């Protein structure tokens, strides 16, 4: 084994050498980790839009691209600057890793010291493109995506901690909260002292009171070229597109896929149908394996003689996927947008509790999921035909000889063996080290190939074994579009179709028509009433939710007072708690606890209610009973500690013990040393957790701090923190504190304040009840309701805000959006946008939206042109406005002036704008009689080899499987749910 010299590592600015004390430990054989910033040329995102972006109909990775309550970034700096990034470095004798906590805790560098090979794509710059859910997204390394893809927190920071273990291994813990539903995720990057493996040790926790959908995909990027091959287990015969809308054979595509006729290409160039090689894929393409009994996959660089393996137990990690921009000018343009010099990459993605995208699973309230994923570099064995976390095998078979190549992940005395049945054909025992290739040849003449077994053993323990697999050739199923509700044959299918649409967060189909049709046929269907009850509860429609919950209970109790599931009682308890009927809520939750599936969740809520009422001993007894029964919900541990503290107990030992299982838990850290998260949203979460346990004074103190927190990429919680403080103070009988907090809420900075969730809803409703003249509360409540789908209620709240005399540009903009989409009042929509622009004439986003509205309303093109010409400073700030100005100039016979807008400007493709820059450029050139040519790289896009299918059908309906729907991003007539 040859190790890369330390001097070579030291000169790399991304991988500085460890501090002297750690260097000594590294030399002694331990794995080490340390925090040390790195300076990376970075194209920084510009400030996000100040208006809320309601993009729930946006198609993103096959599901809804809803971004609210996060601010949305629409532009990236066109030039890099040297930026200092927090970085955590991990090293052992075989590996070197760099983790970037400020970018979601992603692995930025994965380097194999034994071969000098970067087994993960190393991007020497941070160059975001507008690919992420909230805008910026960077390529390279490994991104951990949850609760959807790409992760909402891709460009947000995580909290970190380095843990050194007694066995010489180290773990870098990265913790974040899902910014949508506030679920908690921790991923630990673990490196052992004596192994070449990289482990992701993951804990997901649904810390909410409702069932939540989620998925987890780890996105590993690898540098590619003509000799890079993605490999999957030998039993993989077919792969599928997003949502299984199309399939093809693998590795040789046997039909057109993504519009590319691979069999025809192979007839011209043999092998051109092999989609396991990046070089053969000319268009942006995803494929996910349909099924496999194996737990590994990976990629291999034939030119470098190195690659990597991913392994995770296929029982919970069946997802295996490749994505590429495509090896053609269109894809190369995207490569250029994402790096300066590091070239193309593909993503080899591993899904846990998911097989496809979108393919969401469920987490029950309080539920915890734990799992691990493992990556490791492989030297020149070739693509792995079998792999475990211990070793990988490659087997070449000719007519008479089996040639076996293997590599290990830790030092072993390995016995490599080729057998035919029980007869040993060849065997060799030797000391093996990571980074080395070990080979064995065996003559198998006279033996059946299917009888061959290749195995690597360490003593009597099998590290990895292989035998030939012949995959099943039966074609798998492909997805179909659901029938219209009236055509669905059964109420069960209506219920399940609605559930699917909800679970998979479908961007253009609502579950409500299916559930309403089911109730039309059977008005008492308990499944549908329960689904509608949850839907209403999430939208804070408490009265409607209660009606549905009680209707479900009536049907369930028709023959059986003790149904198999008590979920309806649990929902009823949550609703009653929200509307202040605590005694009834506790009773309903008590009934819910009769079912073991809902006992822990209902017990948490019941204990919380008792604690808030001051009955600390009863709450403690509830919690202790659940813990003694083995309930695995970290919320119970937190409640036990908080209630103990309220009783005057010394809880320090319990806190220390809890921190072992819950690294980076904000509550435990706060109880240890009073630490408060720097992020305002996390501070609010912590305050509400304390308030839930009846620790009112602590909660108020934390909300006071949150009200002065920094306004960052997660938004601005200052006004909402004060409204929540007022709500808690009112419930504690402190009306003067509450009134002061509400008054102060109107005085703090409200930029990027995007209220979200039931607590914020209840606080804003309470504020309006306390002071009907609080226009800010009405304006913020409207934003929350609009994002929740209660759009007519939102428009009414915005009108109420104006009636109080409150106004700002965002309020008028929101009302204009709702007037068009919900009320169908085009005049009000136009007047609202005119007023918004008058209040904030320097907001280019408002000018863009007003121009979109003008086009929707059929306004004269000359008027639109004049408006944009008069505001060219604003137009120049946005690519989409520049494109619209160019198109209007071309339409007005000024094509030369239109073409001039493209000179010297670097465009960045944006969601919903795919192809618009190139189309406008072509329009201007066509008008001038210039030939169609390949566009300059400054346009940010190139001509696609194949045009994607149109999202809108000829009859005006939307393709159920559409991948891009720019028409639905703004100004779509909607039916209020």
From TrEMBL:
<dbReference type="InterPro" id="IPR011990">
    <property type="entry name" value="TPR-like_helical_dom_sf"/>
</dbReference>
<protein>
    <submittedName>
        <fullName>Tetratricopeptide (TPR) repeat protein</fullName>
    </submittedName>
</protein>
<dbReference type="Pfam" id="PF13432">
    <property type="entry name" value="TPR_16"/>
</dbReference>
<dbReference type="Pfam" id="PF17128">
    <property type="entry name" value="DUF5107"/>
</dbReference>
<feature type="domain" description="DUF5107">
    <location>
        <begin position="67"/>
        <end position="357"/>
    </location>
</feature>
<dbReference type="InterPro" id="IPR033396">
    <property type="entry name" value="DUF5107"/>
</dbReference>
């Amino acid at each position: 084994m040859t190790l890369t010299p330390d001097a070579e590592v030291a000169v790399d600015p991304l991988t500085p050498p460890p501090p002297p004390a750690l260097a000594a430990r590294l030399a002694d054989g331990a794995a080490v980790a340390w925090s040390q910033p790195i300076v990376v040329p970075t194209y920084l995102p510009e400030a996000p839009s100040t208006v809320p972006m309601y993009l729930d109909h946006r198609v993103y990775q096959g599901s809804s691209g809803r971004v609210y309550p996060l601010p949305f970034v629409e532009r990236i700096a066109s030039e890099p600057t040297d930026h200092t990034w927090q970085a955590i470095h991990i090293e052992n004798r075989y590996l070197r890793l760099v983790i970037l906590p400020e970018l979601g805790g992603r692995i930025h560098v994965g380097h194999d010291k034994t071969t000098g090979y970067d087994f993960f794509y190393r991007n020497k710059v941070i160059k975001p493109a507008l690919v992420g859910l909230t805008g910026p997204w960077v390529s390279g390394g490994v991104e951990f995506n949850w609760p959807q893809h790409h992760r909402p927190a891709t460009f947000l920071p995580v909290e970190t901690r380095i843990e050194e273990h007694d066995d010489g291994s180290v773990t870098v813990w990265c913790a974040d909260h899902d910014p949508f539903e506030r679920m908690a995720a921790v991923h630990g990057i673990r490196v052992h002292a004596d192994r070449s493996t990289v482990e992701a040790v993951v804990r997901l926790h649904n810390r909410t009171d409702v069932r939540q959908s989620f998925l987890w995909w780890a996105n590993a990027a690898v540098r590619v070229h003509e000799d890079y091959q993605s490999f999957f287990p030998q039993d993989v015969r077919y792969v599928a597109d997003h949502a299984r809308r199309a399939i093809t054979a693998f590795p040789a595509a046997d039909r057109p896929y993504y519009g590319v006729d691979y069999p025809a290409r192979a007839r011209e160039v043999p092998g051109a149908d092999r989609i396991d090689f990046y070089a053969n894929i000319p268009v942006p393409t995803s494929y996910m394996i349909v099924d496999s009994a194996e737990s590994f996959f990976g990629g291999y660089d034939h030119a470098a003689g190195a690659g990597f393996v991913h392994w995770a137990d296929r029982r919970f990690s069946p997802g295996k996927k490749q994505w590429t921009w495509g090896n053609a000018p269109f894809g190369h343009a995207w490569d250029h947008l994402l790096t300066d010099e590091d070239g193309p990459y593909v993503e080899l993605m591993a899904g846990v509790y998911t097989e496809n995208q979108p393919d969401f699973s469920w987490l029950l309230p309080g539920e915890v999921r734990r799992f691990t994923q493992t990556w490791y570099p492989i030297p020149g064995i070739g693509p792995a035909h079998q792999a475990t976390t211990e070793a990988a095998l490659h087997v070449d078979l000719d007519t008479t000889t089996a040639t076996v190549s293997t590599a290990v992940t830790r030092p072993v005395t390995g016995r490599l063996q080729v057998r035919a049945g029980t007869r040993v054909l060849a065997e060799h025992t030797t000391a093996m080290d990571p980074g080395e290739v070990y080979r064995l040849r065996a003559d198998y003449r006279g033996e059946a190939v299917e009888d061959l077994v290749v195995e690597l053993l360490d003593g009597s323990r099998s590290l990895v074994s292989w035998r030939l697999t012949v995959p099943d050739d039966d074609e798998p199923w492909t997805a179909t579009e659901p029938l219209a509700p009236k055509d669905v044959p059964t109420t069960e299918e209506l219920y399940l179709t609605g559930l699917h649409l909800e679970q998979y967060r479908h961007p253009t189909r609502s579950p409500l028509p299916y559930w309403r049709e089911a109730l039309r046929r059977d008005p008492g269907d308990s499944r549908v009433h329960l689904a509608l009850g949850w839907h209403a509860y999430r939208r804070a429609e408490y009265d409607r939710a209660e009606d549905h919950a009680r209707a479900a209970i009536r049907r369930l109790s028709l023959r059986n007072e003790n149904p198999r599931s008590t979920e309806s009682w649990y929902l009823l308890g949550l609703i009653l708690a929200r509307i202040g009927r605590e005694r009834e809520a506790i009773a309903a939750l008590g009934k819910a606890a009769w079912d073991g599936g809902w006992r822990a969740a209902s017990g948490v809520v019941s204990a919380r209610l008792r604690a808030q009422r001051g009955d600390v001993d009863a709450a403690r007894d509830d919690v202790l009973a659940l813990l003694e029964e083995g309930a695995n919900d970290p919320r119970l541990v937190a409640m036990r500690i908080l209630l103990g503290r309220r009783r005057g107990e010394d809880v320090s030992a319990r806190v220390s013990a809890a921190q072992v299982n819950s690294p980076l838990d904000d509550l435990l850290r706060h109880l240890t040393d009073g630490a408060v998260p720097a992020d305002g949203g996390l501070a609010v979460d912590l305050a509400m957790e304390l308030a839930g346990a009846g620790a009112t004074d602590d909660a108020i103190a934390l909300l006071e701090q949150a009200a002065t927190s920094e306004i960052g990429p997660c938004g601005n919680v200052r006004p909402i923190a004060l409204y929540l403080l007022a709500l808690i103070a009112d419930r504690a009988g402190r009306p003067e504190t509450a009134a002061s907090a509400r008054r102060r809420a109107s005085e703090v900075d409200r930029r990027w304040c995007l209220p979200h969730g039931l607590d914020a809803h209840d606080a804003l409703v309470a504020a309006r009840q306390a002071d009907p003249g609080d226009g800010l509360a009405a304006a913020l409540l409207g934003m929350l309701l609009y994002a929740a789908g209660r759009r007519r209620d939102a428009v009414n709240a915005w009108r109420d805000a104006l009636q109080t005399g409150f106004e700002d540009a965002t309020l008028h903009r929101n009302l204009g959006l709702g007037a068009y989409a919900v009320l169908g009042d085009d005049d009000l929509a136009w007047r609202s946008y005119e007023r918004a622009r008058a209040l904030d004439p320097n907001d280019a986003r408002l000018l863009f939206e007003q121009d979109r509205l003008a086009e929707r309303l059929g306004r004269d093109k000359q008027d639109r042109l004049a408006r944009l010409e008069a505001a060219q400073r604003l137009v120049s700030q946005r690519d989409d406005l520049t494109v619209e100005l160019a198109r209007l100039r071309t339409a007005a016979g000024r094509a030369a002036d239109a073409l001039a807008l493209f000179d010297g400007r670097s465009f960045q493709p944006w969601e919903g704008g795919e192809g618009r820059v190139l189309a406008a450029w072509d329009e201007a050139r066509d008008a001038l009689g210039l030939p169609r040519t390949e566009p300059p790289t400054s346009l940010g896009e190139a001509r696609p080899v194949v045009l994607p299918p149109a999202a809108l059908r000829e009859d005006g309906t939307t393709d159920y499987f559409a991948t891009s729907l720019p028409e639905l991003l703004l100004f779509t007539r909607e039916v209020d749910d």
